[in-house]
Amino acid sequence: MREDLGRVSPPTVSKPLPAHQHPLIGRLLGEHHRRLNELVQGLGSPLHVVLPQVFDENLARMQRVLDTHHLQSTILFAKKANKADCFARAAAERHSGIDVASSGELSKALSAGVRGDRIGLSGPDKPERLLKEALLHGCLISVDSVNELQRLTLIAANLNQRARTLLRWRPESEAKSRFGHSEEELNQSVLLCLANPSTIELQGFSFHLSGYGLAERATCTSRAIDLCLQARALGLVTCNRVDIGGGLPVQYVSAQHWNRFLQHDHRTHYHANKSFSGFYPYGSEIAGANALEALLQAPTQQGSLAHKLRHNGIHLIIEPGRALLDQAGLTLFNILGSKQRSDYSIITVEGSSLSLSEQWFNSEYLPDPVLLGEPCGSAFNACVGGSTCLDSDMVSWRKVPFSRPVLPGEKLVYINTAGYQMDSNESAFHDAAIPRKVVIELDPHDHSMHWRLDDI
Questions:
Q1: How far apart are CA 186 and CA 173, in angstroms?
Q2: 49: left (phi over 0), alpha (psi -120 to 50) or beta
């Protein structure tokens, strides 16, 4: 419980939320800060830095968890989480897959070297062109409704193809969602699959949850396994896949700092007393591959969830996006200047909050940004605004406790922005250029830095 803040005026500055830094990021900011500064000067602000080496580590870590449990499994990188080509190529090189939801994403996945049979297609009422492309490349198609399944059946018949299909189920906890089949609709679609064996091959069921609770995801996974067993009993013998979507939490800041922040959070800690409907759980206790491990150990009536998957010959599909991109990128802004308010300053950066997408969902990207270079001097509390003409264009509404005052021309770094932050809402507002992405790799032996533009 928070103390009654009506009786005691709360501090007007937030508690610090120092962002975790992968060792590679630490070396970049420490040993290569001058080169990063030059890249921003030459390529523009904001500048997104993407790190495929870290993506590789995250992917390998998750695969080890799945292999330890001896599961038949596929990891599909959720392409929507970041548009950078280097991540799609990394998925291809590790023989992983990609989840797509548009012709553009499908084309980029194929161009990166991902085989069609390792591409999952999701999304509601997919256009005819997209369904045709997915059929011709042998993609696994997650069908959102009875009507979509009927359309897919006709398209597959016309192309003389057999559609590899999952039926997307809508759990009771997602009753307000516009996506997926209800239980009654699921029965209708299963009957359609039974009636059209030459054009539809039902391979299993998928679901997506909007939250990050592992217990609920385990319950839904167990239920999806049961759906497969019921479909097999009807004669759909190839029904052996369960796609549980993404939603594995990422820990951006320590759980200790996060809990302290939540305990003391107050609207006076934000510019214009801004309030928010909620935040991403930046300090999740269990995250990434550890969250996957905890999920697989969740209890069911047949032992652990991993045991139930193995025992029933179920192929597990996961679609991590943010979790594969954890620490795999950062964003640099050029500082244009600052102005003083009564007890804090407002920094203006070259760019806008459209390059930090959390702000456009009535939320805030909370991990503290840092100044590029060596910190020194006294404390300096400041929020961060973009360079557009919109009063609402705030990159950080929160009054961040910096280590020192900032100067024009310095660079402000937001760490761990690869997952959904960089390009979900990019815009050419004010005729500004779309921010560029730079792929950076560090030599594992001498830590020398190599960079290139990310371009398919």
A1: 16
A2: beta
Helix H or strand E encompassing 230: helix 214-233
| Number of Cβ atoms within 10 Å of the Cβ of 199 | 21
pLDDT recorded at residue 7: 46
Rounded Cα gap, residues 135 and 158, in angstroms: 11
| DSSP designation for 119 | E
For the stretch 362-395, pLDDT in tens is: 899 999 999 998 666 668 899 999 999 999 999 9
- AA letter at 369: P
Q: Which burial class, exposed, middle or buried, applies to 441 when counting CB atoms under 10 A from its CB (0-12, 13-18, 19+)? A: middle
Burial of 332 (0-12, 13-18, 19+ CB in 10 A): buried
Nearest in space to 106 (alpha carbons), one of 142, 207, 114? 114
Render the burial of 164-177: b for 16+ CB within 10 Å, e for the rest.
Answer: bbbbbbbbeebeee
What are the tens digits of pLDDT across the range 188-221?
A: 999 999 999 999 999 999 999 998 999 999 999 9
| CA pair distance 63, 103, nearest whole angstrom | 28
- List helix spans (H) across 275-362: 288-296, 305-311
In terms of Cα–Cα distance, which of 138, 161, 247, 230 is closest to 190?
A: 230
Question: Which DSSP state fits 326?
Answer: T
Whole-angstrom distance, CA of residue 421 vs CA of residue 407:
25
- Longest CA span, the chain: 73
Q: How far is CA 141 from the centre of its chain?
A: 21
Rg (alpha carbons) of the chain, rounded to whole number? 24
